[in-house]
Write a structure and sequence with these properties.
The protein is built from no helices and five strands. By secondary structure, the protein is an all-beta fold. It has a single domain, classed as Nucleic acid-binding proteins (OB fold (Dihydrolipoamide Acetyltransferase, E2P)). It has a five-stranded mixed β-barrel. The two termini are 21 Å apart. The relative contact order is 0.31.
Length: 76
């Protein structure tokens, strides 16, 4: 199972959190390091996580049109 770690950037929706996952990559030709930020909508059943929390998310069956991830635990 693929687990990702990211920071919650939005907690305005009910039972949904937007998690920013940062990934470091290297350019194939120029070999320069750069970051790529992806925003993923994750399910939070009890609305217990707030903006700024670092959380771990895992993929689940599609819950809605945009949601196919679930928050498992708080890292920090």
């Amino acid at each position: 199972m693929k687990k990702l770690t990211g920071t919650i950037v939005s907690d305005k929706m009910d039972k949904t959190r937007t998690v920013a996952v940062v990934e470091k990559r290297r350019h194939p030709i120029y070999d320069k390091a750069f970051t790529v930020t992806g925003k993923i909508k994750a399910h939070d059943e009890k609305n217990e996580f707030v903006s700024g929390d670092v959380v771990e998310i895992v993929p689940v069956r599609p819950i809605s049109k945009d949601k196919a991830w679930k928050i498992v635990k708080k890292v920090k």
